[in-house]
Write a structure and sequence with these properties.
There is one protein chain. The chain folds into two domains: 1-16 and 213-256; 17-211. Strands 1, 2, 3, 4, 5, 6, 7, 8, 9, 10, 11, 14 and 15 form a 13-stranded mixed sheet that branches. Strands 12-13 form a two-stranded antiparallel sheet. The chain has two helices and 15 strands. With 256 residues, it is α+β, with helices and mostly antiparallel strands. The protein is elongated. Helices cover 21% and strands 41% of the residues.
């Protein structure tokens, strides 16, 4: 029993645990005020020549048809498109959207039904004990939606830090999302639809720290286990001795 208890505690000491905390700060001050974004989305009913990425924010950025570090893969014999892009956004409220705004000739009724494979921010962070919303929109399926509708995804981006046992930090971002689907009109008629990702940053940072129990706590607990084992053994031995003496007296009484 003692060996089993010692083994279980030793296993628990060797294993690491993840402690999380919340604080208000920008954890990645060396990023230059930028966040890396990875987007992968399929539009099975929109030709690649029409698909583009536009980026806007409150610092005045307005980029139509972003093409750096992006790729468009034809789907459905050229009738559809899979857009994959890596780009950066500023750490201010803004949006990026997949649309036909950069196309040479605007289609009359672009079909914006889609499937989001990935939308992630910052470094890729996959740690077994950390469950988070790092790719909350991964798998979002809007293939059966109204083909003339725009889609708004409202994102609240939460800075996230992971610190391992060596003290090395990795910076990523989780996010929550709400979405709506609508057909928009203006005084000139129906507005060309798009897939909007409108984002804002949370002032709260989530930090995950990997740690192991201090060695002094391990020694203290081992001493407590050993001391407790000897104490219990002493009590049991005393009880057995007392019972044995009582039994001897009973036997002597019967003989006399």
């Amino acid at each position: 029993m003692f060996d089993l208890t010692l083994f279980l505690f030793l296993t628990g000491f060797i294993a690491t645990e993840i402690v999380n905390e919340l604080y208000v700060d920008d954890p990645d001050k060396d990023s230059g005020g930028k966040i890396d974004v990875s987007l992968n989305v399929s539009l099975p009913n929109l030709h690649c020549d029409l698909v583009g990425l536009d980026i806007q924010d409150e610092m005045g950025r307005h980029e139509v048809g972003h093409i750096d570090n992006s790729m468009k893969v034809p789907l459905n014999q050229g009738g559809g498109c899979r857009f994959e892009g890596e780009f950066t956004i500023n750490k201010v409220p803004g949006n990026f959207h997949v649309s036909t705004h950069s196309a040479t000739a605007q289609p009359q009724s672009p079909d914006m039904t889609h499937n989001i494979h990935k939308l992630a921010f910052g470094e890729k962070l996959q740690v077994q004990k950390v469950q988070g919303a790092f790719n909350a929109l991964g798998g979002a399926d809007k293939l059966s939606s109204n083909p003339l509708a725009s889609h708004d995804y409202i994102l609240k981006i939460v800075p996230t830090v992971y610190e391992d046992l060596s003290g090395r930090q990795r910076f990523s971002y989780q996010y929550t999302v709400a979405n709506k689907e609508y057909v928009a009109y203006s005084h000139t008629g129906r507005i060309i639809p798009a897939i909007w990702f409108r984002y804002d940053l949370s002032p709260i940072t989530v930090k995950y720290t990997e740690r192991r129990q201090p060695f002094y706590r391990f020694i203290t607990t081992i001493c407590a286990i050993v001391g407790g084992t000897f104490t219990v053994a002493g009590i049991i031995d005393s009880c057995i001795f007392t019972a044995s003496e009582a039994w001897k007296k009973i036997q002597i009484g019967k003989m006399s």
